[in-house]
Design a protein that fits this description.
This protein is α+β, with helices and mostly antiparallel strands. It is 25% helix and 33% strand. The protein folds into 2 domains: 85 residues, Immunoglobulin-like (Sandwich), CATH 2.60.40.10; 35 residues. Strand 4 and strand 5 form a beta hairpin. The radius of gyration is 23 Å and the shape is elongated.
């Protein structure tokens, strides 16, 4: 599966028992992501942005995928998908796009307020 950086990825794995997700990065490295029992999810990978989510059907969602998320994902020791996340080539991520349009909107608002203020000054002096 190939996905662009910044997209959301859903990896399906139906399991009646507690899911156990791992990721193989290369031949020697196996990264344990998390396991879940009936009440708790135990994270093994630091995830301060809460990008990894396990769904009720045991599927894994990776929000805002990055190149470092690439690898072979295993659910209960069975390979499910070989994920390749490719970087945006000169493109703009969703966050960057939001910041740019937010900045343009803010500049437009400041211009409008300055125009209104200048108009009031002109009317007040007349």
């Amino acid at each position: 599966m190939m996905k662009g950086e910044g997209t959301n990825v859903m990896i399906y794995c139906y399991s009646v028992q507690s899911p156990f997700w791992t990721k193989r990065i290369n031949e020697e490295t196996l990264d344990v992501l998390f396991t879940q029992d009936k009440e708790n999810t135990i994270m093994y990978k630091r995830d301060p942005d809460k990008r990894y989510v396990i769904l009720p059907d045991s599927s894994l969602v990776i929000r805002n995928a990055s190149v470092s998320d690439s690898g072979i994902y295993y659910c209960k020791h069975s390979p499910v998908v070989n994920l390749t996340v490719f970087p945006l080539k000169g493109g703009v991520s969703g966050v960057e796009r939001g910041l740019m349009f937010g900045g343009v909107g803010l500049a437009g608002l400041v211009f409008l307020l300055a125009t209104v203020a200048a108009g009031r000054v002109i009317v007040h002096r007349a």
